[in-house]
Design goal:
Strand content of chain A: 25-35%
Helix content of chain B: 40-55%
Structural class of chain A: alpha/beta
Number of domains of chain B: 2
Helix content of chain A: 25-40%
Strand order of the largest sheet of chain A: 6-7-8-3-9-10
Number of domains of chain A: 1
CATH superfamily of chain A: P-loop containing nucleotide triphosphate hydrolases
Order of helices and strands of chain B: HHEEHEEHEHEEEEEHEHHHHHH
Number of strands of chain B: 11
Shape of chain B: elongated
Largest sheet of chain A: 6 strands, mixed
CATH architecture of chain A: 3-Layer(aba) Sandwich
Strand content of chain B: 15-25%
Oligomer: heterodimer
Number of helices of chain A: 7
Shape of chain A: globular
Chain lengths: 221, 351
């Protein structure tokens, strides 16, 4: 299974300057990719296009060689079954328990709540926050919350995990722990794409891609 | 369903505030309705008892008794009956005293004496008497009554016509078949049908003797208030729509404040239909609980302050606040889904 972008162009304003220009990229199962670039360079846009949250202005997104479905039930199902997400901030339901947050992806997939919680508890334990399961998400520190969201992404055993600046608001030591939790606990066939401006984190990945002036280049640029 | 319940439970403060706001909104509407409507409905009831919705048809040369009785099947007509003055009579038990006699068709007792249950011609010949006549002659239903020079005939019932036809209360009343002409035709309408009733009745008598004239039994200037128009123009009759918009707006605001959360659900693969269902269930649970609580406190306050609590006013309060609640049930999920429209990435940015 693969996820490919072909000649992607994206503008936020009709007729305005494109954020992405002619971007092509293929993500193979099991690999890890870091997308680096300065703030505002289009990393998040590229990630949301990869994760089928944003429809590009031009170009094609292919999944297993077929164009991604149009917005609708099939696209939602694909998102639930194939993708896991970690966002930079506030990517949890603040008043729900850590366990419920970790189980959310599975519940969305249609799992029974108790079965989802059992699998989520394992994922929380794997990333080292199993002891926080009963806490409300809003009471967690930034590093703990990111590990909970990592557990949520891992629990569904997706084909692709997309992480948008997952350590953007964390100190260095915590950042290393979060990335390690993500890269070392994923199932072997799960691909990880991380948008980051931290070159040290980028070096942990198999490939590094650099967004420059809306174009994608191999390496740190 | 599970997510909706979990969200309501985990956001207990938000749910409680919403519940309280809904209870106040629906309850205030219900209280206004039950409080004002009790007064208006009581007035309408007394207005109706006094004959406020009765019209009288007359014409040069009389009106057809048959057409008058035929009005009983007309929509909006409570009862209709014709009356004809039949001269005067004296009774053996009170010789020398003259009493008026009226021939009335079978529908008339229900117009003149609202409590009457007479719906067809009596099987045996007999008279009815007004209460004043019965009192003067000291007779009661079942006794025989004899006009001077005639055989005794049973007194079938005593009709209390004093409120609407005081002129007939000291009279002998005889049910006559609906044939020939009568002096007047009395028609009682439902409150809703009354305003347009005159025209329909005039049309029913068109082509008969002379031009029928229809007049209200109670002329408009006899009362300074008109309960029908007051009920129609009470502000809360349309206020439910404002309350519904306000409450639905609160739900939309809450959804707007939750748009990052909604974006997260969508990003994780929740379909928009499922999201709409979840939001609808959350709002429906709160609306149902808020409406019920609002109704209960509105009725409790009305009762506690010693004001009348009638079935009619409870029904009006239920209909009015229920209309607001139903409108919110429809509007709230629609507005919430509109808030969650557009790019998921943008929703996720709105934190």
């Amino acid at each position: 299974m693969s996820l490919s972008l072909h000649d992607i162009v994206h503008c936020y304003v009709s007729g305005g300057l494109p954020v992405l220009r002619g971007v092509s990229l293929t993500v193979e199962l099991g690999e890890s990719i870091a997308i680096v670039g300065p703030s505002g360079s289009g990393k998040t846009t590229l990630l949301t296009i990869l994760g089928l949250l944003t429809e590009p202005t031009g170009g094609v997104v292919l999944i297993d060689g077929k164009p991604a479905p149009r917005p609708g039930a099939a696209l939602s199902r694909l998102r639930a079954q194939r993708f896991g997400w970690i966002f930079q901030t506030a990517n949890a339901l603040p008043r729900r328990s850590v366990l419920d947050n970790a189980a959310l992806g599975l519940v969305v997939q249609g799992w029974r709540r108790d079965a989802a919680r059992a699998r989520a508890a394992d994922a929380l334990a794997a990333v080292g926050v199993g002891h926080l399961a009963a806490q409300e998400a809003r009471n967690l520190s930034g590093g703990e919350l990111q590990r909970v969201c990592t557990a949520r992404a891992l629990a569904t055993r997706p084909s692709f995990i997309l992480a948008d600046e997952p350590t953007g608001q964390l100190d260095h030591a915590t950042s290393v722990q979060v990335i390690a939790a993500l890269l070392h606990n994923r199932p072997y066939q799960t691909a990880v794409v991380i948008a980051t401006h931290d070159t040290e984190i980028a070096r942990e990945c198999d490939r590094i891609l650099h967004v420059v002036d809306g174009e994608l280049r191999e390496g740190l640029g | 369903m599970g997510e909706a319940v979990a969200n309501l439970r985990s956001s207990a403060v938000r749910s409680s505030i919403l519940f309280a706001a809904l209870s106040v909104a629906f309850g205030s509407l219900a209280y206004l309705e039950v409080h004002q409507a009790s007064d208006l409905l009581a007035f309408e009831s007394s207005f109706q008892a006094a004959g406020g919705y009765v019209s009288i048809v007359s014409a040069q040369g009389g009106v057809s008794a048959g057409r008058c009785e035929g009005l009983n099947g007309m929509p909006g007509v409570v009862a209709a009956g014709a009356e004809r003055a039949e001269g005067q009579a004296t009774f053996s038990s009170a010789p020398g005293v003259l009493y008026q006699q009226y021939g009335i068709t079978v529908g008339m007792p229900r117009v003149w004496a609202t409590a009457s249950s007479i719906t067809r011609l009596p099987p045996t010949p007999g008279f009815f008497a007004g209460t004043a006549l019965a009192s003067e002659l000291a007779v009661r239903a079942g006794l025989m009554l004899a006009r001077v020079g005639e055989s005794p005939v049973p007194l079938l019932a005593i009709l209390d016509v004093s409120a609407r036809a005081p002129q007939a209360d000291r009279s002998l009343l005889e049910i006559i078949p609906p044939t020939g002409n009568a002096d007047e035709c009395w028609v009682e309408f439902t409150p809703k049908a009354f305003p347009g009733g005159s025209g329909a009745v005039a049309a029913a008598f068109a082509g008969g003797n002379g031009t029928p004239s229809v007049r209200a039994y109670i002329s408009p200037d006899q009362f300074s208030r008109n309960p029908t128009s007051e009920l129609k123009s009470r502000p809360q009759r349309n206020g439910w729509a404002i309350v519904a918009l306000l409450v639905a707006g609160i739900f939309a605001l809450v959804a707007w404040l939750r748009r990052a959360e909604l974006g997260l659900y969508l990003a994780l693969g929740t379909s928009r239909v499922t999201l709409a269902t979840m939001l609808a269930m959350e709002s429906w649970a709160l609306v149902a609980a808020g409406w019920l609580a609002g109704m209960l406190w509105a009725l409790a306050i009305q009762r506690a302050t010693g004001n009348a609590l009638t079935l009619g006013s409870i029904r009006l309060a239920t209909v009015t606040s229920g209309s607001a609640a139903l409108a919110v049930l429809v509007l709230a999920p629609i507005l919430s889904v509109l808030v969650a429209r557009g790019s998921i990435a943008n929703l996720l940015k709105d934190r």
